[in-house]
Specification:
- This protein is an all-alpha fold.
- It is 57% helix and 0% strand.
- The chain has five helices and no strands.
- Helix 1 runs antiparallel to helix 2.
- The longest helix has 19 residues.
- The chain is elongated, with a radius of gyration of 27 Å.
- The N and C termini lie far apart (75 Å).
């Protein structure tokens, strides 16, 4: 928040909102995660560290307080039961469903409906040119 961070030295609201939110979430997650590089910190201590970082200009103070309000309302384990593997599997299935199938390509070998339409238009143009008297 104070402009000393990487990469562009942005200050306050110049930093995109999503980036400010992500910084808070990531910081909290790093402090409270099991098996982290420093060991797991209790949520109460992590909250105190977030507030300290906000006072020192490292994090958006207003967003830190909003984040803490969500933790207090929803509980400090909020979001920890997320099934990320299930979410990734769902995304993989959706992507696979969105891929064109071999039957969608048609006999022209075109990869998209526009390519297929273009190929058909060129065939029609050649057919017209070949059949027209010269």
């Amino acid at each position: 928040m104070d402009g000393r961070g990487y990469p562009a030295g942005l200050i306050g609201s110049e930093i995109p909102l999503a980036s400010r939110i992500l910084a808070i979430c990531s910081t909290y997650d790093t402090m409270t995660a099991r098996g982290g590089y420093r060991g797991q910190m209790p949520p109460e201590e992590a909250i105190a560290e977030l507030r300290n970082a906000a006072r020192n200009g490292q994090l958006d103070a207003e967003l830190v307080e909003r984040f803490i309000a969500v933790l207090e309302r929803e509980g400090v384990t909020f979001g920890q039961e997320a099934d990320f593997e299930g979410e990734f599997e769902f995304e993989r299935r959706v992507r696979k469903m969105a891929e064109p199938r071999a039957t969608d390509l048609g006999s022209s070998g075109a990869r998209s409906p526009l390519e297929r339409l273009g190929r058909l238009a060129r065939k029609d143009r050649r057919r017209v040119q070949e059949s027209s008297p010269r």
